[in-house]
Specification:
The complex is a heterotetramer of chains A (about 200), B (about 270), C (about 260) and D (about 280). Chain B is of the alpha/beta class and about 270 residues long. Chain B has one domain: P-loop containing nucleotide triphosphate hydrolases (Rossmann fold). Helices cover about 40% and strands about 20% of the residues of chain B. Chain C is mainly α and about 260 residues long. In chain C, helix 2 runs parallel beside helix 5. Chain C is flat, with a radius of gyration of 24 Å. At the A-D interface, helix 1, helix 8 and strand 1 of A face strand 1 and strand 4 of D.
Chain lengths: ~200, ~270, ~260, ~280
């Protein structure tokens, strides 16, 4: 594998065309999870896969644009979390590049890191915009519990995001890892952006 | 003998528009081609047979079993349907894994599933690609994998939706072998086709769908001789029939041999 | 039609306002409600936004969008009214549940902000065509490639949704169960999402080729088939909006200083 | 002068060992209609990509030899510079729609806008292409609401609008129904009258026989033969390359019906009926 630097990934046409696909995968992941009545969202599989395939920049773009699009077509509230989604793409892309995509165990670590980063970034957003809650019943119940036991708002809010994000992101990264590992070679090469053409 | 009996079958998504209307058919034994323009109701018909859609009216009996009384999953052993686009089903990273998915679902054990799958892959001549990723093969090869993934479940009735699309000469020959073999095993084979040459050459019986109804059905040779009726359904005659027509020969021709025999006699 | 959109075809003043002016309104109206945390002020901003929606003849369309946030709003009211750290003054009790004045007034502030946010977004998305918005942004310097991504997502997602039914049919035909215990349902997730991923990456590759041969990566300055619509008074409106934002910032700094 | 010159071209996809194009050499004259045949995986698509510059620029991998299109050496130029000379259309009409345009009219404009062509010229080019591909009636429809045949014609119109002198079609009808196939073949016939050089990979041999000037037969990355349909389909060894001759030719071969002047078998119904007429 001839990867150059992760930041100099040229935004090739293939990589750009991957972004709409990633957002579509996010969307269908969520629909299928709903269809099967799974207790998770699984709505960032596309973003995570895009990062694994084409690096942190494309991953981050997929995340950000995902929430903008969702905001202007379904629910404006979700635009607020564009930053969180972008960070998810960034973290996965960087960790994948640093060699953390070796096996299921390391994938779980990525999922954990992603979940924590997502919770850390969401916390100030939640505090600023809606006083610390997420609108998720379980998370908000946890928030109420913490606040009523005299924990500071920021910690309660972080706890709220943490219980919402971490399990979902771990599941998301594991699923994405299995899919990624199963991809044929010829899918990887076009997004890799290696510039070399050998002479024959 | 396997059989499909369809009585007074109608289907519609919305009350205003009938997709299928009053279909009566009895199929047993013979290989059958289903032809007709896009939107004539062919795909809807086979989805009804498969139990993926429920009739608005009428009944479907598969070997005496009324499809109403069974779930799709429980019918999987009785009737197999190969969809047009293999990309809508392929999700495993090896060919063998993909083909084994169905057999494992219907309760075959690992070893039997593997045996059946390898057998099915031999039939489509892809046995040397067991461990290959399906997406490292071409679309036409993936179509063959989809076919194998149904054959491995060993259903009594097999339906193909547009199997010849995008296949080259060798691919079509492979399909031909599979259809003949299934017939010899006593299975009932149905096939939606756009390729009239293939329909005429390979299938004993042909059903012409037009606007949700069966326009005509009978032995393929007779059907493909009827230029006017085919034109009514916006279909072309097979090339051999066209050649016969151009040369002013009377009668019905479905294969090269038919035509050659007639020409030599002359 | 196969496009995801909330756009409502009407003829109103808002429909005849430049997309970028509306974008600016969204940003300013949200920002000032956070800069100035006074209930009366936030309420009046929300009322202005509401009036604009009525002026744009799209008020009824915003109701279901507001409905999506009902859980968040209820949660804000209950949790803050109940547990807000500064709660002191008891307002009323229902059974054993006690609501406090401080918490409820904070909840009111938050709720008004959220509703204003959603409604001002509504002004933009209910009265603006996507392609016009994106083209306007490209002319302002947005990368045409990002513009392409934004527009294509809106059409490709509905396309992908139609494959969802096909995939489900194909896997059920191979005996896969989609109902039953959690384990059964979890096992069904891969056969469903797998084809979506593989198929869409495969199509991505083909589409990239189609884009390449049509000059997508060309460095030429792009031209536009559609001529931008002419709007009047836009500069004036935009200046007013910028001034409003500036005033709110000044107010904020002054309150800090005092 | 040859408009396409292919000299000893060799190519391997990245991370593979097999030469998909193995030392291919041939020339195509301006205005010719060339059929490209061979079994699946013979290298037809790769050859099409090589002529349009996607091989090697898009796919990378290992490359050798030279492809000249309209005097331009493909290896030395970017795809963006090649595409005004060479248009490429492939089998899946759906993935050729950009997705970012809401009408057929705008879809056709996509490439022209990217190349920064003046608005007045864009409008003219669109009108011309609409007419040539017989899709003026559907110009205001959403590309995704079309039938396969219509969508494929929009795809062709979109590259034709760039005024390429060469058009490459890689199995443009293999995913279409008979009606869509017929529509596409009809407009391709129109295009040949415009003086455009056409190269079309296709399995529908019977249709190809009547349309093409010459046929290029390839097998496992190698060029086997490049000749007129009559000569090529009269070869005895076609089956070795996974090809079957047109029905007319098969019948003629079995009956021994040959053209008296050159000893070749007929490839179209018309030719057959002429030879038969002479015989009777």
């Amino acid at each position: 594998m001839s990867k150059t630097s992760i930041w100099t990934f040229k935004l090739s046409t293939a990589a750009i065309a991957l972004i709409p696909a990633a957002i579509g995968i996010n969307y269908l992941g969520k629909l299928f999870a709903g269809l099967l009545k799974l207790p998770l969202w699984l709505d960032s599989i596309g973003t995570v896969l895009a990062s694994m395939l084409a690096g942190p920049i494309i991953g981050a773009l997929s995340g950000i644009i995902n929430n903008i699009i969702y905001g202007i077509t379904v629910d404006p509230i979700s635009t607020v979390y564009a930053v969180t989604s972008g960070a998810i793409g960034l973290v996965v892309g960087i960790m994948a590049y640093k060699g953390w995509l070796k096996n299921v165990k390391t994938a779980i670590v990525i999922g954990l890191v992603v979940g924590i980063v997502a919770a850390i970034i969401s916390t100030p957003l939640n505090i600023t915009f809606w006083g610390g809650q997420t609108g998720n019943i379980w998370g908000d119940a946890f928030y109420a519990f913490l606040v009523s036991h005299n924990f500071p708002v920021w910690l309660a809010s972080f706890g709220d995001s943490f219980v919402v994000d971490v399990p979902d992101k771990i599941a998301t990264v594991i699923i994405s890892y299995f899919i990624f590992r199963g991809l044929p070679n010829n899918f990887n090469t076009i997004f890799r952006g290696s510039d070399k053409i050998e002479e024959l | 003998m396997n059989s499909i009996e369809v009585t007074n079958l109608s289907f519609s998504y919305t009350p205003e528009i009938d997709v299928l209307k009053g279909i009566h058919l009895k199929l047993d034994g013979e290989t059958t081609a289903i032809v007709g323009q896009n939107g004539a109701g062919k795909s809807t018909f086979v989805k009804l047979l498969k139990g993926l859609l429920r009739p608005t009216e009428g009944e479907i009996l598969l070997n005496g079993k009324n499809t109403k009384d069974y779930t799709v999953a429980s019918l999987a052993k009785e009737i197999g349907l190969v969809f047009q686009n293999p990309n809508d089903q392929i999700f495993k990273n090896t060919v063998i894994g993909e083909v084994m998915f169905g057999p494992l679902n219907i309760g075959q054990d690992e070893q039997k599933a593997k045996e059946k799958s390898i057998e099915a892959l031999e039939k489509v001549h892809l046995e040397k690609y067991l461990e290959t990723n399906p997406y490292d093969l071409s679309l036409s090869e993936r179509k063959l994998i989809a076919i194998a993934s149904i054959l491995s479940m060993d259903p009594n009735i097999v339906i193909f939706d547009e199997p010849t699309m995008g296949q080259d000469y060798a691919g079509k020959e492979t399909l031909k072998e599979i259809i003949f073999e299934l017939r010899n095993q006593g299975k009932l084979v149905l096939c939606i086709l756009h390729d009239m040459d293939f329909a005429a050459e390979v299938f004993e019986r042909t059903i012409v769908f037009n606007q949700g109804k069966v326009l005509i059905e009978g032995p393929s040779r007779d059907i493909f001789a009827q230029k006017e009726i085919l034109e009514q359904a916006y279909l072309e005659q097979p090339y051999v029939a066209q050649i016969a027509d151009e040369l002013g020969l009377k009668g019905s021709y479905a294969t090269d041999e038919d035509l050659l025999r007639a020409l030599k006699e002359e | 039609m196969s496009t995801m959109t909330l756009y409502v075809e009407k003829n109103s003043i808002l429909h005849n306002t430049a997309p970028l002016t509306k974008v600016l309104y969204v940003m300013v109206s949200i920002a000032i409600t956070y800069l100035i945390p006074e209930i009366a002020f936030v309420l009046s901003v929300a009322i202005i936004t509401l009036l604009l929606l009525i002026l744009g003849k799209v008020f009824r369309k915003i109701v279901p969008i507001l409905g999506l946030s009902i859980i968040l709003i209820l949660s804000i009211i209950i949790v803050q009214g109940f547990f807000h750290p500064q709660n002191q003054t008891i307002l009323f009790s229902i059974g054993f549940v006690t609501f406090y004045k401080e918490g409820l007034s904070y909840a009111a502030l938050l709720t008004l902000r959220v509703m204003n946010m959603i409604m001002s977004f509504g002004i933009l998305i209910l009265t603006t065509k996507h392609d016009e918005l994106v083209e306007a942004m490209i002319k302002k310097g947005l990368s045409p490639k990002i513009g392409y991504v934004l527009l294509s997502v809106l059409q490709l997602i509905p396309q992908m949704r139609t494959t969802m039914a096909k995939i489900t049919d194909a896997q059920r035909s191979r005996g896969m169960e989609t109902e039953g215990s959690l384990l059964v349902r979890m096992k069904a997730f891969f056969p469903l999402i797998g084809p979506v991923v593989l198929n869409s990456i495969n199509i991505t590759r083909e589409r990239a080729i189609a884009l390449e041969v049509r000059g997508f990566s060309s460095n030429q300055k792009r031209s536009f088939l559609n001529i931008s619509k002419e709007y009047r008074y836009q500069t004036a409106i935009q200046v007013i909006l910028w001034l409003t934002l500036a005033a709110a910032i000044v107010w904020r700094i002054l309150t800090w200083l005092s | 002068m040859a408009i396409i010159k292919v000299e000893n071209v060799k190519y391997k996809y990245p991370d593979t060992d097999k030469l998909v194009l193995n030392d291919m050499t041939f020339d195509v004259e301006q205005g010719e209609f060339i059929g490209l045949i061979g079994k699946n995986t013979a290298g037809k698509s790769t050859l099409c990509f090589a002529l349009a510059g996607l091989v090697p620029h898009f796919f990378k991998g290992a490359y050798g030899g030279k492809v000249l299109v309209n005097g331009l050496e493909v290896r030395q130029h970017e795809i963006g510079e090649i595409s005004p000379h060479v248009g490429l259309v492939f089998e899946n009409p759906f993935s050729q729609m950009t997705g970012s345009k809401y009408t057929v009219y705008e879809e056709i404009a996509f490439g022209l806008e990217n190349m920064g062509i003046d608005r007045e010229i864009i409008v003219n080019r669109i009108e011309e292409s609409l007419e040539l591909l017989d899709i003026t009636e559907i110009k205001d429809k959403n590309p995704f609401d079309l039938s396969g045949g219509q969508m494929q014609r929009v795809a062709i119109a979109s590259v034709i609008a760039l005024k390429p002198s060469i058009l490459i079609l890689d199995e443009p009808t293999s995913q279409l129904d008979p009606q869509g196939t017929e529509e596409v073949f009809k407009v391709i016939e129109n295009l040949t009258k415009e003086g455009i050089t056409i190269i079309m990979a296709e399995h529908k041999i019977d249709k190809m026989a009547g349309y093409t000037d010459r046929i290029l037969l390839i097998h496992e990355g190698k060029l086997i033969d490049f000749d007129t349909p009559a000569k090529l389909f009269s070869r005895e060894d076609l089956q070795d390359y996974g090809i079957i001759a047109p029905a007319v030719t098969r019948i003629s071969q079995s009956l021994g019906i040959q053209n008296k002047e050159n000893g070749l078998y007929p490839v179209t119904l018309k030719e057959l009926s002429r030879e038969m007429g002479d015989k009777r």
